[in-house]
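Trying the structure run again after the queue cleared.
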Amino acid sequence: MIMNFIKNNETINTYRKILPFVRPYCARALLALGLAIPIGCLDAVIALSLKPYMDIVMVEKTAQSPWYIPFLIIAFTSTQGLLNYASTYTNDWVTMKVTNDLKKALYDKLMHKSSVYYDTTTSGDSLKRFNNDADLACNGLLGSVKMMVSRVFSSISLMGVLIYNSWQLSIIAITMLLLAVIPLSKVKSRIKSVTNKSESENAVIITSYNEAYNGSKVIKAYDLYNIQNNKFAKQLDNLFKLRIKITQKTGSISPLMHVIVSVGIGLAIGYGSYLIQTETISSGNFVSFITALIMLYTPIKGLGGNVKSMQTSLLALERVMKNLEAKPHIIDKPNATVFGGIKDNITFENVYFEYKKNVPVLKNISFSASKGETIALVGNSGGGKSTIVNLIPRFYKIEKGEIKIDGINIADYKICSLRENVSIVLQDNFLFAGTIKENILMGKPQATEEELNNAINNACLSDFISSLENGLETYIGERGVLLSGGQKQRIAIARAFIKNAPIVILDEATSALDNQSEAIVQKAIDNLMKDKTVFVIAHRLSTIQNANKIIVVNQGKIAESGTHEQLLKNKNGAYKKLYEMQFEKKIRV
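Done. Tokens:
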């Protein structure tokens, strides 16, 4: 089994890949493993000490008995216990440090995942991949390595005791030992596919917990308790079936090893009795041998479960390394230049884009926006408006065509520098758990007090903040749940304002607000738009009538473009129809 493990290149490569994370703590890791050596070897001392004790005290019954042997056993056992504590503490310290470093690397990798990843991956799957797998891999593997080192040296020392007491019985014992460990070599191949399916199903369950938390109001409003409970029960049943299948594939190993080990002990006792009768070995030899044999076989009987746990951890580590080695969907070119801000214009030239292969979302999109202009994108839902503005900061990679800023393809700019020059305000802006001040300063962490106050004033937040007991230090809850929609929008606008990026994207920034909130937020947006190149996606056409250019996007194509006045003159135009529909609706209301 060990040779099979060593020959497994995939396993060796996986361990090699984690070495950079272990290397900073190499001294402590080696200390933990080094301490495991005497812990294992001390097992043999107890068995070996029984030979003189049995021969002198129990058999010969001499007066001068080795009285010190019980005290030596106590001393050695106590030493072993102390060493075991030191080894466990050191190993756990290294494990937690390595786990934390792995999680930091995984978290950074998660932050740099493309928008495509977030569009297609559930929160549960992400949590499992980037957090749970790191715990499972490190806790299982590093602990298992320590246990393996301890048991290897324990086995070697105990086999030394066996051979010392009787080489004849040792042949039987070691033969049965080899037969017992052979089934362990197939554990990984048996459980790999089922384990990965089990982990995927576990991710589904984590997603359900997230949905229960984030969707609690919808669940209450629509009385979805039974539906969600039944759905969750089915997920648990699926996970149960997969995990019980793992047990079915590995469960037979443990009883098989018990049988083999029992046969070994039985043969040793039977043949050992014969050797005592023929005076080939003494009673002390036999007792010492049997004690060593039982101490050797006892952990072997439980190796099936330990190896299963170790292989599960190894599979988790393989998944972790696969995530760490995954290349980002969008990366800088080797010769990418730093983007210093727009000087002339932004142009879309025959741009095509698709989320799914051969299902185009944007088709031949071409238009330009001069520096300082406001470009409004309108049209039916699902037409491709948000996709267009998401391509500017390179959240996605275009299929064909080019997007240029000042005549240079945005793919030739460093991504970080490009995004530093773009501010985004969405319909449902994400706020982080923390204070109002912390969320605003995320736009510019090094901002001065003057810049912060300027952003607050221009976002129309002054009165709101002054009404709060803790002012800027008010905690807003996860995703800003303690705030109203208008308050969240203005904090997001303040965050964008303090960033002071030359390009501003407003994606339905006021569509979810009531009239009063919209008026305040619109004033804040007007302040944000000053002297900026702005792309506005708007549902309410009244908010974009002063745009320099209005582009109507339907079914991934530009239907028409022009100013508000120009588009209204087109009697059969798509914009005029949208405008009239909203105008008639207002009159009816």
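The first helix runs from residue 2 to 7. Worth checking whether this holds up in the mutant runs.
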